[in-house]
Amino acid sequence: MEIITYTKNNTQVYITRNHLDFSTAVDLTQLNDDEKEKFVALKSQKRKKEFLLIRMLKNQLFPEKEISYLTNGAPFFTDHSFSLSISHTSSFIGLAISTNKRVGIDLEEIQQKIIKLAPKFMHSSELKAIQSINNPIHYTHFWCGKEAIYKWSGIDGLSFRNELPIFHKLGSWFGKSIRISNENIPLEMIELENHIVCFTY
Fold first, then answer.
1. How far is 187 from 147, CA to CA, in rounded Å?
2. How far apart are CA 53 and CA 73, in angstroms?
3. Whole-structure pTM over 0.85, yes or no?
4. What own/partner pairs with CB < 8 Å and gap ≥ 24 does 188-193 have?
5. What is the pLDDT of residues 103-121, one digit of tens each?
6. So what CATH class is 106-200?
């Protein structure tokens, strides 16, 4: 398994390609008994593939650790050794960890359709800042930033448009989760094969 890695301050990110082909036999030896039960219960092939790939990636990096989920779907290591966040697209699977702070990651393919969707997740002030550019990359930055901060926040039901502002300042990206605090959360934005990778650090 090829792993792409990024490190920023105390956040480590590991990304691998979404390469599984379910037309052939799937090796479930990567899963423990509890994970096999959860895998079988998943309805869609997409979710099964994501579940298995995350475990394969985790087993290559941290074979002694086990991933579980809170009731809101947020992942965590059962030994609570690291904060954990997960993201996936049709092309990539990503895992971010931090030993001393909460973490959020998002992977998103850059697509033209995001421009039409932008008013649903961007505040009018954010739209005003980039509408003259009209480039899907810039809108994807905002979506990924908000998604990463949403995961960092750990709170259900936050409004992407009104409660998770994202901004670019002096060459760096930041976000806020205003229901938690007015703290600026640094964001790393990386382009990867027509995708944006965004993570908190």
1. 11
2. 17
3. yes
4. 188/6, 188/8, 188/11, 189/141, 189/144, 189/145, 190/6, 191/137, 192/4, 192/15, 192/92, 193/91
5. 999 999 999 999 999 999 9
6. alpha beta
Q: Which two tokens stand for residue 200?
A: 């908190």
Same fold, 4-103 and 106-200: yes
Pick from 39, 77, 45, 72: nearest CA to 58:
77
Q: Which residues make Cβ contacts (< 8 Å) with residue 141, sequence separation at least 6?
A: 166, 168, 173, 189, 196, 198
Q: Report CA-CA distances (Å) from 56 to 30, 32, 46, 59, 132.
A: 6, 12, 15, 5, 43
* Angle, vertex CA 164, rays to CA 7 and CA 16, nearest 5: 35
Q: Give the tens place of pLDDT for each residue, 20-36.
A: 877 665 677 778 888 99
Q: Fill in the amino acid letter for 123.
A: H
- What residues does each domain of the chain span? 4-103, 106-200
Residue holding tokens 């985790």? 58
- Assigned architecture for domain 4-103: Alpha-Beta Complex (3.90)
Q: Which two tokens stand for residue 58?
A: 């985790």
